[in-house]
């Protein structure tokens, strides 16, 4: 394909920092670059504690351990999401209760949540689709009322915000008790594979560090708080290599530039496709008043599966790769029989009609727009 | 410290391959370098299928999922090992039955295993300490007799072998049903953090790939075996970034050189410390007839905890960092109360008296030997 769907962006300093990490004699996890990245995120977005992880999946698994999911506990989350949102909790024995998306956005329908809460519900996982905030204020209020944890799957949501009714603006990932970010190569800020857990509720801070370090108090040991470290809890090796953190650091240095560029591409799509979309019965993404746009993703909501297929094929014929996204998890081979049978029409709708357009730093967006405008059927 | 315990080795081509991976437009998992590394290991060591992972811990977790550990299942493993050997199985609900080490080596005592097997035993995990083979032939026979899985924790055991009674020589990690390797910076071949699952029993090959890819049949999809991929099983994101795999590939290109160098350092320690050790009642590592030496680790077995402390302090006073190793897991804060109370004297002995000497590519080994020979008390 002449125009791929995604192309990883290199700031130019990545390998310099990797070589520096090697020269410092430490390329295993939790080195200088890991700590620099974590501090950057804490300072910029107001997360009380950040821990880099090998993936967003790993960060979600840490969250599932931290909220002490036990077999039979119920976790509410959207069906229109990536498998890891669910797997992380299933690995701890949770029953997943899938919620529908809003009719106007793939984000979870906040109004559908209350009826899904039972005595076994332990947590709500929200996914900020395309980096656009779920309606967090009513969700946090509902969670508080029912004593539930809220975990933000902020995989796509770096550098995006939510505004509360009183005007307070908070970064996505800083609102729930815990949040998970992704630095997968398809994200705004990348390290190939990679992720981060943001801990906002202080009660989880100390244990998060232990679980991250294979269930040991190694971090306390390095701070001189204990004189030898040992096995004190369950855990895994959630730390990424310093090679990964050094790469990520070079990206963070260029965050503003990357974000400016991605938002400009998004705006170009949005403005220049408006009349074409209207003429074809295609909807463009909307940003609610309480949300911001982080330029993560630009998608079209086609009027039918057939139209979406035609759009994808039209672009492909011109060397441009556009791709659909999630398949409703409640209908998957793995979960179909476990699902309670409720119909989730909006999730199924986005499964069929949503298509994502290329969006990356070096994209020649005008070319994609020009080709798309030639699409007139069916 | 003038002489650290470990220093990561850079072949010089690591960042070249990382840049190449970025230029190819793919730095997420399972790209060209991941596949090159996996093929290298399969071809060189006869593993039927290899999958790179984010850590050896992750590979052990994959093994625990693959053998379908369920709550209450028992897994036998040495107490003298890293926490991840146990955690990976505990996360799936296993009860760990800790075995003692041999009196002459930290490896699991093969003669102690039969008495630990119950109707709930599902697997035996062996750890090839210092890259030296456990006595695999009787262990495999016992496992076959009781229908148990054998998982090799080969974290330290790359490029090492076991010879069967009939003269057949097999690479460590190719003998059990599954095996886990580490590429942590302290290992022979490194990527900072990193690991690999080796699948030897064909029954696990297909599912291993699914679990590796978040429980999806994505790998089948990319091979064109299915027309779209979906959620079909539990799983996690066990794939490392291509950045990590590209780094590892540069190391593999230099495997022979690295191994020659490490074995030479080991031999220098072994030969030149022999009479000094004898005079001080210190034992040097021995390689059984059925095993090989991969130059991973050189350790001293002191005659007492006091002597070990004195050796460590003597070296430290000369700017050389030597470090003890595991603390018996059955006595850890986490597991002490869960342990069945059996005394594991050899494991506790190695906890107290084993000390590891620096061993890395650029080490000036003669200097460490010279300083050690000055040690004469207590």
TrEMBL record, chains A, B:
Give the keywords, sorted. Answer: Pyridoxal phosphate
Fetch the InterPro entries from UniProt.
Answer: DegT/StrS_aminotransferase, PyrdxlP-dep_Trfase, PyrdxlP-dep_Trfase_major, WecE-like
- Residues annotated as coiled-coil are none
The membrane spanning regions, by residue number, are none
Q: Which residues carry this modification: N6-(pyridoxal phosphate)lysine?
A: 187
List, from the UniProt record, the residues annotated as the active site of this protein. 187
Could you tell me the Gene Ontology terms of the biological process aspect for this record? Answer: polysaccharide biosynthetic process
Which GO molecular-function terms appear in the entry? dTDP-4-amino-4,6-dideoxygalactose transaminase activity; pyridoxal phosphate binding
> Is Lyase given among the entry's keywords?
no
SUPFAM superfamilies, A to Z: PLP-dependent transferases
Pfam families for this protein: DegT_DnrJ_EryC1 (PF01041)
Similarity remark: Belongs to the DegT/DnrJ/EryC1 family.
What is the protein name stated in its UniProt record?
Answer: dTDP-4-amino-4,6-dideoxygalactose transaminase
Which organism's genome codes for this protein?
Answer: Flavobacterium aurantiibacter
């Amino acid at each position: 394909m002449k125009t791929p769907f995604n192309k990883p962006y290199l700031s130019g300093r990545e390998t310099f920092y990797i070589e520096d990490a090697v020269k410092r004699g430490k390329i295993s996890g939790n080195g200088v670059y890991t700590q620099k990245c974590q501090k950057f995120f804490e300072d910029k977005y107001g997360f009380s504690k950040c821990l880099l992880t090998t993936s967003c999946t790993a960060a979600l698994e840490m969250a599932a351990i931290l909220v002490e999911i036990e077999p039979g506990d119920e976790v509410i989350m959207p069906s229109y999401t990536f498998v890891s949102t669910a797997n992380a909790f299933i690995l701890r024995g949770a029953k997943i209760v899938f919620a529908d998306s809003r009719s106007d956005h793939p984000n979870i329908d906040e109004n559908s949540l209350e009826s899904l809460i039972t005595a076994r519900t332990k947590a709500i996982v929200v996914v900020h689709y395309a980096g656009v905030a779920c309606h967090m204020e009513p969700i946090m209020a509902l969670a508080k009322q029912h004593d539930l944890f809220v975990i933000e799957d902020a995989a796509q949501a770096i550098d995006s915000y939510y505004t509360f009714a009183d005007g307070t603006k908070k970064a996505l990932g800083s609102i729930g008790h815990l949040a998970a970010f992704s630095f997968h190569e398809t994200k705004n800020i990348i390290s190939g594979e990679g992720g981060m857990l943001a801990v906002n509720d202080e009660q989880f801070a100390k244990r998060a560090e232990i679980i991250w370090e294979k269930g040991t108090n190694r971090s306390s040991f390095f701070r001189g708080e204990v004189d030898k470290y040992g096995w004190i809890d369950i855990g895994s090796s959630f730390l990424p290599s310093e090679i990964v953190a050094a790469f990520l650091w070079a990206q963070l240095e260029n965050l503003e530039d990357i974000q400016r560029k991605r938002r400009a591409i998004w705006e170009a799509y949005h403005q220049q496709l408006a009349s074409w979309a209207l003429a074809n019965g295609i909807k463009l993404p909307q940003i609610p008043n309480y949300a911001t746009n982080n330029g993560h993703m630009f998608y079209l909501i086609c009027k039918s599966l057939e139209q979406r297929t035609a759009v994808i094929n039209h672009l492909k014929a011109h060397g441009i790769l556009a791709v659909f996204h999630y398949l409703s998890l409640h209908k998957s081979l793995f979960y179909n029989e476990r699902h309670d049978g409720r119909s989730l029409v909006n999730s199924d709708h986005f499964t069929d009609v949503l298509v994502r357009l290329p969006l990356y730093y070096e994209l020649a967006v005008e070319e994609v727009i020009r080709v798309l405008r030639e699409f007139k059927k069916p």
